[in-house]
Design brief:
By secondary structure, the protein is mainly alpha-helical. Helices cover 53% and strands 10% of the residues.
Length: 334
């Protein structure tokens, strides 16, 4: 994680020197995709970064558009509709990338102890059978996309918030400088970077990448006085819950101090759920928080990012909660 970040930061030197801005959301997408490839699949996905990013963006946008209109499921099954054609075309591109990851591993014959190796070696407890090709494909696709998109979006929103709140940024820089003393962070540093973690937690409170979470109701139920029929799709919204005044004082304000151990203990368990909760809590939450903390600390100690004046920042609620358009920022070497 930190090696990939260090390489990216070295490439930023010229941008900072020339005063050229960069799209921080796009930069984080490239970085987190590279990290997912190397840490979970032992493969370099930097060549595919633009291809994957563009294809996933199209799928993201089209599915978000379709699910906002009636009879979306029917629309997805009509192949000649323009939106469905775009989804199918770009899904095929993503499938090709995933197929390449799996085929490269099979042809190499390596038994690498990464996530891909674990998935390929997994056996059903009862039948002893391994995953089908389709199951393996679906697991790799989900982890590749969800494992980089959400962390990238969380970091992009964090840099935006830091740019708008210089006092928080100064406190974060002071912690990072004091702990790291100009070296790359390691996983052992994370317990000594509590404010860094609090900044990320507060950023994900205001801008949770997974801003809605849907569940299938297996049985009929009653929730808050409302009857819920069997087989209902039940959608909760972390975005709304995270701004609910019953749980959060001055909920629109960016305040990492909300996440001190004492204040966290005072809140109801599910007042904060950026990774969901219960038996189906995000399987990658520890990976994501470790990655985001290491990346944020690495970047903050080397560069200060500032939103380009006049940039209009808006939400784009697709599958994840992205910034709309380009989130352009300038770099200042520290």
């Amino acid at each position: 994680m930190t090696e990939a970040t260090d390489a990216m930061l070295q490439n930023w030197h010229t941008l900072a020197k020339d005063g050229r801005p960069l799209d921080i959301n796009e930069a984080m997408m490239h970085l987190t995709l590279e990290i997912v490839g190397k840490t979970l699949f032992s493969i370099d996905l930097t060549r595919e970064a633009d291809t994957v990013g563009e294809a996933f963006s199209v799928v993201n946008e089209e599915i978000a558009r379709l699910t906002s209109i009636p009879f979306a499921n029917i629309g997805l099954k009509i192949p000649f509709l323009p939106g469905t054609r775009r989804i199918n075309k770009n899904t095929a591109i993503l499938t090709q990338v995933v197929h390449g990851i799996i085929q490269e591993r099979r042809q190499s014959g390596l038994e690498t102890e990464d996530l891909l190796g674990m998935l390929m070696a997994a056996r059903d407890e009862d039948s002893g059978e391994g995953m089908s090709d389709q199951q393996l494909h679906d697991e790799v696709m989900t982890i590749m996309l969800a494992g980089h998109e959400t962390t990238a979006v969380a970091l992009a929103w964090t840099f935006y918030l830091l740019s708008e709140h210089p006092a928080v940024r100064a406190e974060l820089e002071a912690e990072v400088d004091g702990v790291l003393n100009s070296r790359l962070p390691t996983i052992d540093d994370i317990p000594n970077l509590p404010y860094t973690t609090m900044v990320l937690e507060e950023s994900m409170r205001l801008y949770p990448p997974a801003y809605t979470i849907a569940r299938w109701g297996n049985e009929e139920d009653e929730v808050g006085g409302y009857y819920v029929p069997k087989n209902s799709v039940i959608t909760t919204s972390p975005y709304i819950t995270h701004r609910h005044p019953e749980f959060w004082d001055d909920p629109e304000r960016f305040d990492p101090q909300r996440f001190t151990p004492e204040r966290k203990a005072e809140r109801p368990r599910y007042a904060y759920l950026p990774f969901g909760g219960g038996p189906r809590i995000c399987i990658g939450n520890s990976f994501a928080m470790t990655e985001a903390t290491l990346l944020l600390a690495s970047i903050v100690q080397r560069y200060r990012l500032a939103l380009v004046p006049g940039t209009r920042v808006a939400l784009e609620p697709l599958i994840t909660l992205r910034p709309k358009g380009h989130l352009m920022m300038t770099l200042t070497s520290r």
